[in-house]
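Comment thread on ticket #2218

A.B. wrote:
> Attaching the input chain for the structure job we discussed in standup.
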Amino acid sequence: MKKKLYTAIGLMSGTSMDGIDLSIISSDGYDEFSNILDDYYEYDKNLHDQLVRLRDVILTKKDLLQNSEKLRELERNLTLFHADAVNQSLKKYRNPVDLIGFHGQTIFHNPHEKTSNQLGDGKLLSQIVKKKVIYDFRQADIQNNGQGAPLTPIFHYILSKKINQNFNIKFPIGFLNIGGVANVTKVINDSDNFQNNLSAFDIGPGNCLIDEWVRNNSKKKYDNNGELAKSGKINQLILDQAIDNFKINSYSQSLDIKNFDVSFARGLSLEDGCSTITNFTAYLIAQGLEYIAKKNTIKFLVCGGGRKNSYLINSVRNYLTNRNRINLEIIDNYNFNGDYIESQAFGFLAIRSFLNLPISFHNTTGCDEFSVGGKLVENF
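C.D. wrote:
> Ran it. Output below, let me know if you need it in another format.
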């Protein structure tokens, strides 16, 4: 019997805090998936600056309490921005939408303290756009002793099946998402035994260190296509020291951009610092890929903004010791837009949450048993 198809909007704002990725998808929450529309809405300078300022001062749970009034005001403004984005996209897509998956803007993430704070008022969003909203996706997993991240692997599974069928790529299939933080997923086969079929974890910085260095040392927001890093020279001594000083002994912990800083490159020129930091990032990503690949021959499909940085991607390849077994290729080559995988994922997660289906598993977030995340609100 064919399952009911739902139409959902997925909203994702990543650690770069530059704007909202919005996707409209159709899915049954199981095997069927199609993408309908993708949009991007850039934050205005005032909202972006407020977000960055508050994120930078919130380092502990105590800081959340001390800044609670500012956070409430910012959350309202952020939610209004999301509502406007939804309404603009609904003018383009005039058919009914069943659900909205509202990730919100992460401001603090520390699963050790059972806390992951995403700014975003689901009740207010539902009231304004007159839709059912599912939000607060991470807390149920964290309460179940999970890390609250990454949450996209169950969606990667659906993509892997489609890519396997359409392009005959053999399992296992990997996904490398390079956002602010880099994370990986390995799908072993097309079995729906997710507990044993999926493994995933954060592996290190993605764009966060490169972006921070560029913002702090120039008027630019990021290193376009790695041009700055390409024109600089690696300071090998500093790079080796940074690698020695930052050891990932276990991939069982999720990461936040606050786990990293660019201080090790202090004193270098813009270009040399960019080159050194990009290579530090690439080394950690390569280590993570080799760890999750183990002895498999595996193609990793690269998504997220970092896939556009050709210098970074080539550097990752250079640090791989098993280049014959590990292949990197951007996901856009397989008819998916790598900018919108996460926003599509949160539309899909909203549907699964609505159907009371699990979205996280022991081998993806470390939770004790699979978790159904997300809170449903219908405030209209």
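A.B. wrote:
> Thanks. Noting for the ticket: The radius of gyration is 20 Å.
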